[in-house]
Amino acid sequence: MNGKTITQFIIEQQRQVSGASGAFTGLVNDVVLACKIISNTVSKGALVGVLGSAGSENVQGETQKKLDVISNDIMIQSNEWAGRLAAMASEEMDDVYSIPAQYPRGKYLLLFDPLDGSSNIDVNVSVGTIFSILRCPAGVTNPLVRDFLQPGATQVCAGYALYGPSTMLVLTLGRGVNGFTLDRDIGEFILTHPDIQIPVDTEEFAINASNERFWEQPVQRYVEECLAGKDGPRAKNFNMRWIASMVAEVHRILMRGGVFLYPKDTKDPSKAGKLRLMYEANPMSFIVEQAGGTSSTGRERIMDMLPNALHQRVPVILGSRNEVERIIGYHMGS
Ligand code: AHG
Ligand code: MN
Ligand code: MN
User: Nearest Cα to 167, choosing from 50, 47, 248, 52?
Assistant: First the structure.
């Protein structure tokens, strides 16, 4: 074999943790299996009739795609039986998912966005799965929403699978970030991108510019300065990308630097931002920080936020450290 499998990698990492029982290793393996099954289903697309709308809405009023629902079911089925989880929560489910009575319960909580970027499915652009693992509070056997509302800084593990030209899985256990590529011939994720580091400087930004008129002044200023290029205050040209799949966007930033913004805007005053704290912002912030980047709402570190609801939305600004710190500075008025 040419490279290290993700299973070998996780087992070796867990050997360094005294008292590790193997439950966590098993849990990550189950999540990895779910991502392989989702990857396989996504890649078959129209051949197996999985494209298009499911004809339903999720708790956030968004139309669900068939693959949103299928991916959610795959995550549940792969993870509910093994006795590692106390409960799950998903972007696509209104409430906490309790582990069915016939299965044993474990000490971890799993949160996920089963298919991120699902507006891209029908046009065959990259999508992904994002996940976050928390510890179930001590003494809790039947977790409720409040047991999930832990700051991102308490995450034990976070990762995403990217279903692109190749399927990749990027993982942090809190000791750096490692990337694995799915070898479809043997069905294993192989370590191909060890110890990923985000360059601290960048000339690339990502934002949905159609929302410009709704942005706050600090973000308007930042983007205006980027667009002014060599002739503006930054005295250098910037490039722009917007895939509309956060997974693909964050992956590009991990690979070559950049800054991603889905900032606070006034489009819908009832929403603080578009992206979800528990399923998107926290896991991606953990990965980005572990790779040497920065992640903030513009006013506070995302991973320090005390969540107030399972489906809470937050502004997200993340990526290359010097650029994100500049944007935070604009928000703080310096
Ligand atoms: P999801 O498909 O899970 O609802 O998430 C889509 C998110 C995120 O992936 C992406 O960055 C953003 O929504 C795109 O939003 P716009 O369509 O407003 O550009
Ligand atoms: Mn998403
Ligand atoms: Mn989603």
Answer: 248
